[in-house]
Each structure stands twice: as C-alpha cells, then as structure tokens.
Design brief:
single chain; Rossmann fold; Dihydrodipicolinate Reductase, domain 2; 2 domains; 11 helices; globular; binds nicotinamide-adenine-dinucleotide
Length: 339
C-alpha cells in the first residue's frame, strides 16, 4: 500500500474550504499544512481541518520536504508564480481555475509542470459533475452546443473584478463553460468569435457581458454566453444544451438536472445518481479524488495543463475578438516543446 499524498493549502478562502471539507472522503490524502497571507485564515483551517502547521509564509510549504502536493486557491494574479515554483520544487499541483489570466502564463505553467514531471490538475470541475458526465455518455457526438453562466451581480469591490488581481469574470469564471464545451465537443477548439460590453460594473474597460461562438476541429459549433446581470431562476446560473442528431439534452439547475430527448428516457436528476454521486453533485470530491489518484499513480490528469490552458485561451481570445471585431484562431498544441 502506497503512502498517502501529503497536501498543503495555499490560500485558505472559500474554494479551499470546499476542498478541505471533501478531504475526509479522499482516503489517500492527508492534510499537512495551510498558508495564507492572513494568519487568521490559515489558523482557522488548521483548527478545522487538521494538519501540522499554519503559516503566512507560502515559501515554507513550497519547500517543505513533508509536503508532496499543494492546492493553490488564491487570487488569480498569484497563480502563475506559485504554480511554477511548486512544480520546480517537485510538488504536485491542484491549481484553481483560471489556470492563469494570460495565455503566455499558461504556457509557462505547462512547461514547468512538464519539465518537472509533476501532476498538474486545474480546478475545472464541471466535467466531474455526475449529470454532466451522464449526458456526455448519452450524447458522445453532438453537432451543436450552447453553454451559459449567468450569475447574480458580483459586488463592484470584489477582488475578482480588479484588473490586476482577478481580471474580471469573463476569463476568471467563463473558463468553466469553455472547458465544459471542449469536454462535450470531444475535440480541440480551432476558432472563436465574440462580442461583448461593459454593461454591469463601473470598472473602466472591463468586459462583463459576453456572447461568443467556438468552432471545434471535428466540426462541432458552440455558443458561450457569460455575465452577471442577475441570475435567471428558470435556467439557473449554469445552463447548457447538447444537440445530437435527433437526440440531445438540456442541462439546468446548476447541472443537477437535465431534460433529454431521443434517448429513451426523458429526464436525468438526482434520483438517477448513486449515493456517492448524490453526495457530490458539484463534482468537488470527484475532482480532488482524481487529482490524488493521478499524483500517486502517475496517471494523466483529465483536466491537466493543456485543458486549463485551452479554457483560458478561449476566453482571452474571445476578448481579443471583441476588441478587433475579427475571429481568432486557437493554438491547441503546437507550442509544446518541453520534454
Ligand atoms: N472551481 C470552482 O468552482 C471555484 C469556485 C470559487 C472560486 N474558485 C477559484 O478559487 C480561487 C480562490 O477563490 P476564493 O473564492 O476561494 O477566494 P477567497 O478570497 O475566498 O480566498 C482566497 C484566499 O487566498 C488568500 N491569498 C490571496 N493572495 C495570497 C497570496 N499572495 N499568498 C497567500 N494567500 C493569498 C486570501 O487571503 C484568501 O484567504 C480563485 O482562483 C477562484 O477563481 C473556484
């Protein structure tokens, strides 16, 4: 029996709390340490979730020989430096989405992880939601997709909207829908086009509503809509349609339910899930379990550096498209040159 993966949190906020609450359901993971710029946050995690120490010194966990892996759930501007240093220090990394705010930063992280031979997993959890996985299995070859994330208004003062820190929600959260569409399409994206506006928040130059389209290498086309003007209670925050030929699915209720057609059953819901899936409808435990499995058993990660980079790339290129008025091409693979 192998040793458990000893994991430290970097960033002890809302997202890390969800991972820590899932940790007891991931048997081969041991919580080792907690780091945050705010000592009270790290201390609170130590008290609630256990571990050896809490610290404000991120370098301490990055270079601690008793730490095998880190979960990086900090503000977006810090992702690249922490992930690159963790990889160079030989730690496996579960990096929260977005992988980074720019495409070049994503390449830097991917290259550092590749050179170090560590497992890098990006927190793009939608693929791990049980209803999403079932719909993908039922409609494995769609012809057209739509994906939407429409949130209640994010407070103007939120770090996620600050240009140099969170970068806005189009890249910061839209990457979830981008990755979901890549997963459902089953091919690499090749081109995007988008228009958008600064309609909700006062921040100058911030695109906060976006309507985009994606073309995939296998001919699938998708639309992606993102914003926070207020949630539509009928569709819910997450809403997606998968059109096959004469069959398909409409996912709603934060992807806890789907309406089906042409598939021999008319709906999917929590009643169709087993006990483990029912306890994890958001896919958080499944994602954490997958990361730990991949790190311990040296398996490729389903949401690795390539998927994280593509999700950021799609959203960054959509912003470039709306600025230029032109479609933008997507580089899926050709720049990978490490080894
Ligand atoms: N996958 C998901 O569904 C999901 C959901 C929510 C948030 N997120 C992502 O998780 C990450 C964190 O978001 P959150 O909502 O938990 O934010 P948060 O503000 O609640 O937590 C972030 C924590 O990081 C700490 N921090 C910031 N900069 C730091 C630094 N330089 N060194 C050490 N600690 C630092 C903050 O003090 C804070 O405690 C973001 O990448 C966000 O996009 C993912």
């Amino acid at each position: 029996m192998s040793q458990p993966l000893r994991v430290a949190c970097i960033g002890c906020g809302l997202r890390a709390e969800i991972y820590m609450a899932s940790a007891p359901h991931v048997p081969m993971m041991r919580v080792q340490a907690h780091a945050d710029v705010r000592l009270d946050s790290a201390d609170r995690f130590l008290e609630r979730f256990g571990g050896e120490y809490a610290t404000t010194d991120v370098q301490r966990v990055l270079h601690d020989p008793n730490v095998d892996a880190v979960i990086i759930s900090t503000w977006h501007d810090t992702h690249t430096a922490f992930a690159v240093e963790a990889a160079r220090s030989g730690k496996h990394v579960l990096l929260e989405k977005p992988m980074a705010l720019t495409i070049d930063e994503c390449w830097r992280i991917e290259e550092a992880a590749g050179r170090a031979g560590i497992t890098l997993c990006v927190g793009l959890k939608m693929r791990f939601m049980p209803i999403v996985r079932k719909v993908h299995a039922l409609v494995p070859a769609p012809v057209l997709l739509t994906g939407q994330m429409m949130n209640d208004r994010v407070p103007d003062a939120s770090w996620s909207l600050q240009p140099g820190i969170g970068g806005g929600t189009v890249v910061g959260a839209g990457c979830h829908t981008a990755d979901l569409l890549c997963y459902l399409a089953g091919a690499a994206p090749v081109e995007v086009y988008a228009c958008g506006s600064n309609a909700v928040h006062k921040t100058d130059g911030l695109t906060d509503t976006l309507a985009g389209s994606i073309k995939f290498a296998n001919g699938v086309v998708a639309s992606l809509v993102h914003g926070d003007p207020g949630r539509n209670p009928y569709a819910s925050t997450f809403f997606c349609q998968v059109f096959g030929l004469n069959s398909g699915a409409c996912l709603y209720d934060r992807y806890r339910r789907a309406t089906l057609w042409g598939l021999g059953q008319s709906a999917l819901g929590v009643v169709d899930l087993d006990e483990t899936e029912r306890a994890d409808v958001e896919g958080d435990t499944a994602l954490l379990q997958h990361f730990v499995d991949c790190a311990l058993n040296r398996r490729p990660c389903e949401v690795g550096a390539r998927e994280g980079r593509l999700a950021t790339t799609l959203m960054v290129k959509m912003l470039e498209s709306l600025r230029s008025g032109q479609p933008q091409q997507i580089e899926a693979d050709w720049r990978s040159h490490y080894g």
